[in-house]
Every structure is written in structure tokens, then in C-alpha cells.
Specification:
The protein has nine helices and four strands. Strands 1-2 form a two-stranded parallel ribbon. Helix 4 packs antiparallel against helix 7.
Length: 273
């Protein structure tokens, strides 16, 4: 006593929060907490408050059995500003579960390639030289780390996790992993393959750390399988934004390539090629 943050719904400000403050000053002589973060209520898909009389309540344990606790947590924190009510849709929980599957499959792909490359369990050391695409994803992750940390410090949790979601799904899985596959499968250049594998592993580790507050179970499982330097992701060091990890030139170059690829795909789609 006192604590830092109280998280609660807006419907019990006068019933509970203010009474705690009054009691804290009366009994302890100081405030009980520094910050109060108010969240909204979870309503049904029609916007009604969940109640026994309406029979529209959702049992979280049933949702967890069906989709997983991580999917439910992610769904509850995405796309919602602090203090605003949100509607419960099963489709959104399914989308969160699909994201968990995406993270799981990407991690399996990376670990399979690492095991086929490493010999006698030796660790892949940091390479002397990176390809431009490696520098691009490292730079993007570095910028993401700074932004997400700032968002979390300001309690903008929904904004923070959306950025992590977009980075993992779009930039890391759909772009970077696809870009480095030829280096992993076809390249005779061991240095290039080593740089790709080191980047895949360490970008994934930091991305898992950024995702961990929102999806603790899957991130812990993957983290402990992926590396042995840190005992648990729960007590691991939080990623830090570092100036030497900024590669603005490579970022612009790869973004240009991405735009070109998107343009080609759009033309192909429009012409049914």
C-alpha cells in the first residue's frame, strides 16, 4: 500500500472506487493508488448489457475451452478505446484464434529451419553482415518497440496490441518470412542463410515479448522452446529501442519493393492473370 494502478469498470466509480479512496485517506492517511484506468462493459452482439433475466450472458470458460484464453484476451483488448463499451462477437474471437495459429505456425517454421541448420546444438551467432531485407525488419521492429512501449506507458493498450498484431501478421509473416525462404531453401551462401536465421529468431523473440501481455500462454510456450538464455518470457527483459537498429535507407528501399509487388498483384487481379 499504496498501489500504482487500479483497473475497473466505469459502472462502479461511486460504489467502489471513491469508497476505496475515502477509506484509504481515513485509515492509512494517503491515497490507495496513483492511477485509475476505467474500461467499458462487454455487451452482447445487440448492444444489450448481459444479464440473467435476458439470458444473454457469455460464459468465459466455455469460450476458453473452444478458442483458448489467449484468443479471448486478445479479442477483449483490440479495437476498443478505454472507457467505451464493446459488443461481443464470436467472429472476433475466431479471428484472434486465427492470429494465434499464425504465430504458432510461423514459429514452427523458424524452429524447423534452425534445427536443420545448426549442428551439435550450437547457437547461431550474430552475423557480421545483414541483407537489406534483414535490416528492414530489424529497423521496423526497433521502431515498433519504441511506439508500443510509449503506448503502454500511456495505457493505450488497444493501440499497442494492434500495432504488434499488424507487425507480426503483415510485415513479419507475410513479407519477411516469404522474402527469406529462397535464402533458406536454395541459397548456397551460408553467411546469408545464417543472417536470415539469426534475424528470424531474434525478431520473433522480441515480437513475442511485445505480444506477451496480451497473449501470455502461447508466447510463453514458444519463447521457452525457441531459446534457452532466459528462463521465462514473464521475467525476461523488455525490448528496448536502440538507435543503432535504425536503418532508414533499407526501410525505404524495401517499402518501394513492397509497393511494386502490390502494384503487380493488383494488375494481375484486375486482368485475371
Amino acid at each position: 500500500y499504496p498501489t500504482d494502478v487500479l483497473v475497473t469498470g466505469y459502472d462502479i466509480i461511486f460504489f467502489w472506487v471513491i469508497r476505496m479512496i475515502f477509506s484509504g485517506y481515513e485509515q492509512m492517511g494517503e491515497r490507495p493508488f496513483k492511477t485509475v484506468l476505467f474500461h467499458g462493459l462487454v455487451r452482447d452482439s445487440q448492444g444489450r448489457k448481459m444479464s440473467k433475466s435476458l439470458g444473454n450472458g457469455i460464459d468465459p470458460l466455455e469460450i476458453i475451452d473452444q478458442y483458448g484464453a489467449d484468443a479471448l484476451r486478445l479479442m477483449l483488448i483490440t479495437g476498443n478505446a478505454p472507457g467505451n463499451d464493446m459488443r461481443f462477437y464470436y467472429e472476433r474471437v475466431e479471428a484472434a484464434r486465427n492470429f494465434a495459429n499464425k504465430v504458432w505456425n510461423a514459429s514452427r517454421f523458424i524452429m524447423m529451419n534452425m534445427s536443420s541448420f545448426t549442428e551439435d546444438g550450437k547457437e547461431i551467432t550474430e552475423p557480421e553482415a545483414f541483407e537489406p531485407v534483414d535490416k528492414w525488419i530489424i529497423s521496423r521492429l526497433n521502431r515498433l518497440t519504441g511506439e508500443v512501449t510509449e503506448n503502454m506507458d500511456s495505457f493505450e493498450l488497444g493501440i499497442a496490441v494492434q500495432k504488434v498484431y499488424d507487425f507480426i501478421w503483415d510485415e513479419f509473416c507475410d513479407w519477411y518470412i516469404e522474402m527469406v525462404k529462397p535464402r533458406l531453401y536454395n541459397s548456397d551462401d551460408e553467411a546469408s542463410k545464417r543472417a536470415a536465421l539469426w534475424t528470424l529468431k531474434h525478431v520473433l523473440i522480441d515480437a513475442l515479448k511485445l505480444l506477451h501481455p496480451y497473449m501470455p500462454f502461447i508466447t510463453e510456450e514458444i519463447f521457452c522452446s525457441l531459446q534457452s538464455e532466459e528462463e521465462s518470457i514473464m521475467i525476461s527483459s523488455w525490448p528496448v529501442c536502440r538507435a543503432e537498429r535504425n536503418f532508414a535507407v533499407e526501410e525505404r528501399a524495401i517499402e518501394t519493393i513492397k509497393e511494386a509487388v502490390r502494384g503487380i498483384r493488383n494488375v494481375r487481379a484486375s486482368m485475371n492473370v
